[in-house]
Amino acid sequence: MNTRMRRAAVAVAAGAMAVSLAACGSAKEAGDKPKDSGAAKGDAIKIGLLLPENQTARYEKFDKPLIEKKVADLTGGKAEVVYANAKQDATTQNSQVDTMITNKVNVLIIDAVDAKAIAGSVKRAKDAGIPVVAYDRLAEGPIDAYTSFDNEEVGKVQGKALLEALGDKAKDGQIVMMNGSVTDPNAALFKKGAHSVLDGKVTVGKEYDTKEWKPENANTNMAGALSAIGKDKVVGVYSANDGMAGGIITALKAAGLSPLPPVTGQDAELAGVQRIVAGEQFMSVYKPYAPEAAAAAEMAVALAKGEKIDGIINQKVDSPTTKGVPSVLIPVVSLTKANIKDTVIKDGVYTADEICSDKYAANCTTLGLK
After folding, report:
1. Which of 55, 58, 152, 270 has CB 3.0 to 4.6 Å from 193, enough for a Cys bridge?
2. What is the pTM of this model?
3. Residue 246 and residue 101: Cα distance in Å, rounded?
4. Rounded to whole angstroms, what are the CA distances from 99 to 46, 111, 121?
5. What does the buried/exposed string (b/e) look like for 249-279 if buried means 16 or more CB atoms within 10 Å of the residue's CB?
6. Mean pLDDT, rounded, of the chain
7. How far is the C-alpha of 272 from the C-alpha of 280, rounded, in Å?
8. Which of 245, 118, 96 is nearest to 180 (CA)?
9. DSSP codes of every residue in 213-251
10. Do the strands 325-330 and 145-149 form a parallel or antiparallel pair, or are they unpaired?
11. Rounded distance between C-alpha atoms, residue 293 and residue 257, angstroms
12. How far, rounded to the nearest angstrom, does the alpha carbon of residue 342 sit from its chain's CA centroid?
């Protein structure tokens, strides 16, 4: 990603909590009040927020508080956000939706554990007159709005970074592809984007769809790949996120690889950023959570009040079950050693002190972070 694009994307993140997202698209009458909707009047609305898991640091540290803050800003602190985390269990999440329907929330924001499995719950909410905003993952069923990142672009950014890191070594060996969970529609988009860049330029020795995105499963898969391919033939690893990258790097170290081959990631988790600082992980994808959270909050508040959202969205997308979903998609940034200061530190995601603990102090000094 060139400097101009990177600055533009970071600027979106920096300003998201101060201003509303502007309309960029040509959607017409998007977000009309649902038929027979029990939309609330005024700011005293009740918003149900359902997030998928708590193993990935982002949900509890960023998404939840950012959404809560934006909702409070939009409603003068009068709205109530009812929160539930499914802890990676689709059945639990469906029960949580039913509970929120019973409790008569005015709108739901759902980040689905399983995009297909949630469809019935989305329909039950819709039948009860409760609009649904799909958050981060494109849930199936009759959703009213969606916000996420350009997930195919995420995969492209990862693939381009891996090719950059490999250089002439791209043709010298094989890479391992560690994709995310098949229950997450984003994982398929990351994979599609990555393959569009990597295919024909590298040899994929082994490829995995990693159950539940778990680092321990990625670790097991990586150990198997090294055994099957031969550790000396692995020149790089495509990892769809930072959590799995941690498990992968542990497996690479256990196999005695030194120096480590380049490994990609996503989410700019603190541990991932620290591995980048230390030279163990080549890159991550920084997704500015503030504008994504702001978009979800704005759409949810508007829908709860029975208002239109065509002034918020920037395009429409299709899910397997619903066409033309009013959406806001946010740009992403390739995070490497070169731009840590200009991204996660500048945007206040982490302080230099948080990143530069004693273990990484020398690396941080070299990079000019301290």
Report:
1. 152
2. 0.77
3. 38
4. 13, 16, 11
5. bbbbeeeeeeebbbbbbbbbbbebbbbbbbe
6. 90
7. 9
8. 245
9. G-HHHHHHHHHHHHHHH-GGGEEEEEESSHHHHHHHHHH
10. parallel
11. 40
12. 20
